[in-house]
Amino acid sequence: MKTVAWFTAGAMAILSVALLNLDLASGQTPPSKTAELLSKGKTIYEEKCSICHGAQGNGQTPLSQVLKPPPRDFTQSLTDWAVSKGDPVKIFKVIKEGIPNSPMVKFDLPDEDIWALVHTVREFSK
């Protein structure tokens, strides 16, 4: 019985550390939105995102007509965004990790570039 209790306590400690690390990783604080960051984000968006999400961020492109599910319409209210609900940290995670079983692939970009994209796509809903 002591072995089971020790194993359970050890497993819980490992799980707690893993969850803490996961929480710290996802608990990033977005950098402040600046004109420079928005400009950088706009350039990256045009290069990497507009083919699916459209130049205006409305998800209306020839390619979007065949993607299932269709790309996010960034012009909708932030609270209508299905996965992130407009939360900057969740948007960051979607860009960095993608969405499984969807056309939204992960992007291997520096964190600063992803934050620039986060601020840029949020601007479409305003």
Low-pLDDT parts are 3-25
Total strands:
0
Overall number of domains = 2
Separation of the first and last Cα atoms: 60 Å
Total helices: the number is 5
Coarse structural class: mainly alpha
Estimate the global geometry from the Cα principal axes: globular
The CATH homologous superfamily of the largest domain: Cytochrome c-like domain
Q: Percent helix among the residues?
A: 40-55%
What CATH architecture label of the largest domain applies?
A: Orthogonal Bundle
Radius of gyration: 18 Å
Q: What is the H/E string?
A: HHHHH
What fold name stands as the CATH topology of the largest domain? Cytochrome Bc1 Complex, Chain D, domain 2
Kindly provide the name of the CATH class of the largest domain: Mainly Alpha
Summed up:
This protein has 126 residues and is mainly alpha-helical.
Q: Can you walk through the features of this model?
A:
The relative contact order is 0.15. The N and C termini lie far apart (about 60 Å). The protein has helices spanning about 1-25, 35-50, 50-55, 90-95, 110-125. The protein folds into two domains: about 1-30; about 35-125, Cytochrome c-like domain (Cytochrome Bc1 Complex, Chain D, domain 2, Orthogonal Bundle). Mean pLDDT is about 85; it is low at about 5-25. The chain has five helices and no strands. The chain is globular and about 35 Å long.
Keywords:
126 residues, mainly alpha, Cytochrome Bc1 Complex, Chain D, domain 2, 2 domains, 5 helices, globular, disordered N terminus
